[in-house]
Specification:
Layout (H helix, E strand, L loop, with lengths): L3 H8 L3 H8 L15 H4 L6 H10 L14 H8 L5 H11 L15 H7 L4 H10 L14 H14 L4 H4 L6 H13 L14 H7 L7 H10 L14 H9 L1
Helix pairs in contact: 1-2, 2-4, 4-6, 5-6, 5-7, 6-8, 7-8, 7-9, 8-11, 9-11, 12-14
């Protein structure tokens, strides 16, 4: 068997042949062809069992970087299907959690940056932040932290008059926004973690100093979280107090 047989079987979507080759007792060498590892090549549409077999055979593939410094985790956030991306990311992080902290060498993006750019589900963002919460402070090549990039992309789609249902894959990115705010406020998105103060997302949104959150964005958030408007924080501030202080 040629070293490239398995790669091409996976790359061409020949899943039965891929399974046979992965089950061979021969000492296979999982080659890197066309600048991408076998695991990265499988991310486009391979069944999860194929990816699992590749990882079982050679777990180092999870952190192997290609010519752009991208790991398979970057590619999972970029091109895995909407139906499978959460399971694929969970699989990779279970094997190599430190992959969440590896930037690519092309533009310095972490997997979190890629997930934000590709408007991935909040469940994917949560997994990445639980493993690597300080990623919330890392800037991309445009000097944007993930929260800033989320807002920038939402603003652009609004300005382009994109229909509401397509502005974000699943509408207004409320859950992702709140996850990033929580990471800024508490350094974690783990609800089970012991927090030093009550989690008041609307208050925290007005406290963010590192970027300017558009008023239209905040109005939508207030509409969705109007009950929070009458809550006091530990300093006896309503969100309105913090909003006025932020604009002063």
């Amino acid at each position: 068997m040629d070293d490239r047989d398995l790669y091409h079987a996976v790359h061409e979507g020949k899943w039965d042949e891929s399974r046979l080759l992965l089950n061979r007792t021969d000492a296979l060498r999982l080659v890197q062809c066309e600048s991408r590892t076998l695991l990265a090549a499988s991310l486009w549409n391979a069944p999860l069992d194929i990816m699992q077999s590749i990882i079982d055979f050679d777990s180092s593939q999870v952190t192997c970087q290609d010519h752009n410094g991208c790991t398979p985790l970057h590619y999972a956030c970029y091109e895995a299907s909407d139906e499978s991306v959460d399971k694929v990311v969970m699989l990779m992080l279970s094997v190599a959690p430190h992959a969440a902290a590896i930037p690519n060498t092309y533009d310095g993006d972490l997997p979190l940056h890629t997930a934000i750019k590709e408007r991935r589900l909040s469940s994917v963002i949560r997994r990445l932040l639980i493993i690597h919460p300080t990623a919330v402070y890392k800037e991309d090549r445009y000097n944007r932290i993930p929260l800033s990039d989320l807002i920038h992309r939402w603003k652009w789609r609004v300005q382009q008059s994109v229909p509401e249902e397509t502005r974000w894959r699943w509408g207004f990115p409320e859950e992702t926004f709140l996850l990033l705010i929580r990471a800024h406020a508490h350094g974690t998105v783990d609800e089970k973690a012991a927090l030093t103060r009550e989690w008041l997302p609307l208050h925290e949104a007005f406290k963010i100093k590192c970027i300017k959150i558009p008023s239209k964005f905040l109005r939508i958030l207030v509409d969705k979280m109007h009950i929070e408007c009458v809550k006091l924080d530990e300093d006896l501030n309503f969100p309105l107090h913090l909003a006025c202080a932020a604009r002063s």
